[in-house]
Amino acid sequence: MLLDFDGPVCSVFAGLPAARVAAELVGLLRAERVDLPSDVAAESDPLAVIRWTGYHCDSALTAAVEDALTALELRAVASAVPTPYGHDVIRSGRGVGLAVAIVSNNSGRAVSAYLAAHGLADQVVRVVGRLYARPELMKPEPGMVLDAVRAVGGEPRACVLVGDSMSDIVAARAAGARVVGYANRPSKVVPFAVADALITTMADVVAALSPDNL
Fold first, then answer.
1. 77 backbone dihedrals φ, ψ, rounded to 5°
2. What is the pLDDT of residue 211?
3. Spatial separation of the C-alpha atoms in residues 8 and 87, rounded to whole Å
């Protein structure tokens, strides 16, 4: 079982808002006199900012933004709010003998820090986070999903990714894995219909992992 992190497991930026993190990254780029398009300057998603940086700036500046974002994510996970039933999914998966991996566009260091703080580190066989200063390889590229598949020792078609974004669905499809779309907002229900299954609460995954349903 593969899980995205921000959404299925927790709300990463609940205490340190994503818009504030994105603004700090934009400020760093402006300090380096980068000519930012208006949409990037107003971006509220820090992952979108680092993705843009990777495509339009040199490797040194991309690394600087990566370092800044990782530091901010480490701060953010200290006040992240667990998703209802998200931790239960991890424990239930392990309880029925599944290998569980996290595959996230967030920093792997931040994901690992969160898992350790919540007593989940020993429940997850691998954290596959954003490759250092290589934002172009984030999901929806399939490489991270394939890394997670190898970590759990399975074949892609034997693995299921639970994710709350279209990038999760696209990445899973490209990797040959099955995918459950977690529509944690009503606006996601229709577009996520392309997933193999659709849920609106992680409680549905807990129920599916009940020994009586396996």
1. -70, -20
2. 84
3. 9
